[in-house]
Specification:
The protein is 51% helix and 10% strand.
Length: 275
């Protein structure tokens, strides 16, 4: 076999790979620029009313990321649950909130498993992070590189009530955000120019204060589950950042400022037409 056919075959392989890369990039750009239709917007506004508080400038970004998310992720219902388009929109909207104004993306996530309600789990939690309802029940799980597992009852309620400080979708996708570094430890990929020293001090100081409050029975803006470890504190802090931003900024201003810089968002200033 002469060298020329080998070179031509190699060039063909390279051309195919380049074509696929360009096609994938163009599809991504097209999805990010595609708005939701009027019916989809009504569903999102109804099921995830926090979206109605967001600045208008963020809405096209959110809709584009919802479209990209829905194109990338496959939903599977468990225990006989049929996952409808409305359910997908609710989950996708909540999942995209933390990254609506961020360059990061859930690159490795391909699957979301949805149970009708709290589900039993026998998995070893060494590799995953679980929100527990009881010793044998879970509301959600997040695994590095996916999948994410959710209770639909709790995902729905978390979206419908944006002020109670409980949101399983935000919690699990905070873990996904955290794990993009390759380690889920409460240190996500920081914003360009965001100093690690500032992040570390704010997080550790707030975590230590949180643990002391929980242990002494005093109220804390972040859910008590955040006292479990640093990664759970990060996940619950994300939930509080969106659902109780005034309380978080008042009680832990340095942490609020770090999260605001990380996500390029300031939900404390969002208007409140919910009702």
């Amino acid at each position: 076999m002469t060298l020329l056919p080998i070179l031509l075959f190699g060039l063909l392989i390279v051309a195919v790979l380049i074509y696929r890369h360009i096609s994938k990039r163009r599809k991504r750009e097209r999805l990010l620029a595609t708005p939701l239709d009027s019916e989809q917007r009504k569903v999102v506004a109804k099921l995830v009313p926090i979206v109605r508080r967001m600045p208008a400038s963020l809405l096209p970004k959110l809709e584009g990321k919802i479209n990209l998310f829905l194109d990338q992720v496959t939903f599977h219902g468990n225990h006989g649950l049929e996952v409808t388009d409305q359910m997908k929109l609710s989950i996708a909207s909540q999942a995209c909130l933390p990254i609506v104004n961020s360059p990061v993306w859930y690159d490795t996530l391909r699957t979301i498993l949805v149970y009708p309600s709290a589900f039993s789990t026998n998995r070893n939690t060494h590799d995953g992070f679980v929100v527990h309802e009881s010793a044998s029940g879970a509301l959600g799980e997040s695994w590095q590189r996916g999948p994410v597992v959710l209770s639909w009852d709790h995902a729905l309620q978390g979206g419908l009530d944006p002020t109670d400080g409980h949101n399983v979708v935000l919690h699990e996708f905070a873990h996904q955000l955290d794990s993009l570094t390759g380690h889920t430890n409460g240190v996500p990929i920081l914003r360009k120019g965001q100093a690690f020293a500032g992040w570390e001090k704010a997080m550790l100081d707030a975590y230590d204060d949180h643990v002391k409050r929980v242990e002494s029975g005093r109220p804390t803006p972040v859910d008590a589950y955040g006292a479990t470890n640093h990664q759970e504190f990060f996940a619950e802090a994300i939930v509080t950042f969106f659902e109780k931003p005034q309380s978080l900024r008042r009680e832990e201003p340095a942490l609020y400022d770090q999260l605001a810089e990380l996500l390029a968002l300031d939900p404390e200033r969002w208007t409140d037409p919910i009702g």
